[in-house]
Design a protein that fits this description.
Length: 506
């Protein structure tokens, strides 16, 4: 599965613009063996240091099988994984070594271990500019950690003990947790590479500006692509299979020790899925039997807002498809303002839960004094959904003191299994103010098409909600929804509760 054809023709290498600008540094000239047995860490990092000393350049890993611990990129370095190259993350036990030690420089931590720590990656850069990871080679994260270690966020404002005081985090030192990690970098390019089993995060950007992730393939056992506290990032033409966690996720965590808005992010022409790990690369596309903690099944989706301390602005998700995953989920739970988000031209096939959902909550995993955030101006347009689970319609869910505001759904068409009962129609879903972004706690909802609660300025236009089996629930249920408009909707089963004031138009 990890073998590739040898590079055909040196001309393909020298056609790359990066090679024309600077010298080429072949890791074999610095002692790399590429035999899959010898640790090539020192040789690769020595080649990078030589290129840096020369003012920048391209470090080439030709066809071969390279075993390595942490590779540290510097300014103006392009790491080129040639076709036929496999870069394997070494196992610290089997290879008697370890990855660079994780950072321990934050007095407070409001996220799980690893969201802050980047030096414990297979390939990483910290504070670098003009860095690239390109080529048709493969990164195989065989020796990376992907299971939860038990090392969790401290979550206590004022916690000032050094990170090394946590024995669970001490146990993580020397282990690798991600394939690619770029932190506080400018002018970033990740293109064409394939990542198999990427650890906790296959490709993770934190605090980066002007970054492009293009045409990469990820087939992994945890997160695929994470964009956190970044600005001006483009994710294009990517294929991400991530049954055990999110496929492509945008975050605004507190991992930099301050609140940073994640803004001007576009995700276009990408495909995510939740098939068995490795089965996209080998072409078998096997269905995964993975069941997450809420027992809904695989993840693999596109998501915005898992961590929301800094908030989000100007986010575009367009011309994408998701197959056998959870639906697209957008919202804030840790304070911060989410605004001006557009999700358009999307195909969802066989989503295992709510196809489209906007969530506002008040978990507030954040510094003391953080207040409830806001979620406003979100638009879903031209979306086709098939094979949806009838228990979980589209919807919005705010909280009484922070309703979701100005959300619109237009030209959204959903075909679900249906089959809801009169008992389902009579349900009042649980409200959980201090929840994570996930909405599975609400269970089966009392509408088969759309459920809205605690919202202002909700608009549904030219939407259809069809079912394969008869359903005793109304198509739409609105609970404490004011200033709403529904137009171009053929069904007459719209239920409004608790002071809802929504205008129904032809």
């Amino acid at each position: 599965m990890i073998r590739r054809a040898l590079l055909t023709g040196a001309a393909a290498l020298f056609a790359l613009p990066a090679l024309a600008a600077h010298g080429l540094f072949d890791v074999r000239d610095f002692g790399a063996r590429g035999d899959g047995l010898t640790l090539d860490t020192a040789a690769i990092n020595t080649a990078i240091a030589a290129a840096s000393k020369a003012g920048g350049g391209t470090v080439l890993l030709p066809a071969g099988h390279y075993l390595s611990f942490s590779i540290r990129l510097l300014d103006k370095i392009t790491l080129l994984l040639a076709e036929g190259c496999v870069l394997e993350a070494a196992d610290p036990v089997l290879n008697k070594g370890g990855y660079d030690l994780a950072e321990a420089d934050l007095p407070e931590q409001f996220q799980d271990f690893g969201i802050t720590q980047f030096h414990c990656s297979l390939i990483y850069a910290d504070g670098a500019s003009d860095v690239s990871i390109i080529g048709r080679g493969m990164i195989f994260g065989k020796g990376l950690v992907r299971e939860d270690s038990g090392a969790r966020w401290h979550g206590v404002s004022g916690w000032i003990a050094p990170r090394s005081a946590d024995p669970k985090e001490i146990a993580m030192q020397g282990k690798g947790i991600r394939a690619i990690g770029l932190k506080n970098c400018r002018n970033v390019l990740v293109r064409d590479v394939t990542i198999l089993q990427g650890g906790h995060f296959a490709c993770h950007l934190l605090g980066c500006t002007n970054a492009t992730i293009d045409n990469i393939t990820v087939d992994t056992n945890r997160d695929g692509i994470d964009i956190d506290c970044c600005r001006d990032v483009r994710v294009t033409n990517c294929r991400v299979n991530a049954p055990h966690d999110d496929g492509i996720v945008v975050k605004a965590s507190y991992a930099l020790g301050r609140k940073v808005t994640c803004e001007n992010i576009s995700i276009t022409n990408c495909h995510t899925s939740g098939f068995e790990t490795g089965s996209v690369l080998d072409g078998s596309y096997r269905l995964s039997d993975y069941r997450s903690v809420d027992d809904m099944g695989v993840l693999g989706r596109i998501k915005l807002g898992t961590e929301s301390n800094g908030g989000f602005r100007n986010i575009q998700i367009s011309d994408c498809s998701c197959e056998n995953t959870r639906g697209i989920l957008v919202g804030v739970v840790d304070g911060g303002v989410l605004e001006d988000v557009v999700v358009s031209n999307i195909i969802l096939r066989n989503p295992v839960n709510h196809p489209l959902f906007v969530r506002q909550a008040a978990r507030l995993r954040a510094p003391a004094g953080t207040t409830v955030g806001a979620c406003r101006r979100v638009r879903f347009d031209n979306i086709q959904v098939s094979g949806a689970d009838g228990r979980y319609p589209c919807g919005v869910q705010g909280i009484p003191d922070a309703p979701v505001m100005d959300v619109s759904f237009s030209d959204v068409h959903v075909l679900s299994s249906g089959g809801g009962t009169a008992e389902d129609a009579a349900r009042t879903p649980k409200e959980k103010r201090e929840s994570s972004l996930e909405v599975s706690f609400m269970g089966t909802l009392p509408a088969y098409g759309f459920y809205g609660r605690n919202a202002r300025g909700l608009s549904l236009r030219d939407c259809t909600f069809d079912v394969e089996k008869p359903d005793a629930r109304p198509a739409i249920v609105l609970d404490d929804v004011k200033g709403g408009r529904i137009s171009g909707f053929a069904a007459n089963t719209v239920v409004q509760k608790n002071g809802s004031e929504t205008t129904l138009l032809p």
